[in-house]
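FAQ: What does the model actually see?

It sees only this:
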Amino acid sequence: MQLKVGKSRLKGSVSIPASKSHTIRAVAVASLAKGRSRIINPLISSDTLSAVVCYKALGANIDTTDNTCWKVIGTGGNIKTPADIIDVGNSGTTLRIAAGSAALVRGNSKIRFTGDEQIRSRPIKPLLESLTDLGAKAFSINNNGKAPIEITGTLKGGKTTLECITSQYLSSLLL
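And it is asked to produce this:
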């Protein structure tokens, strides 16, 4: 058998399936940004909708009426203090990323987060310690290193170390 290979050119396009993690991070980034953003082909799930509810409570305007394109008017980093505790349902990604966003609130406003039974059993202490190192006051309300949590004050910057058992902790600080 003889095989002859010649030059060829690749053409075409590929639609990448939506991702829960990417959608939640896109909601966070767009909500913190100044101006208008579009999230094209978001993954629609209870976790991503928890992120939408959370960031609406923090002041973003998010329109999800079109399932193929969510429209977001961001806060420009000016986080609003919600009237009530924010319930992230079963979305650990939302809780962890939003904790860092809450640390952008001005003054001594308190922002509280909770979630379902599973969320209240998962650790978040390393992230809370880093947020506190950087100027916010972040703690577990039940003093067990788990949700419900409260964030008060504004990040000032500085140095911290972080036991990164999940990339979500680092994403929270970087955002």
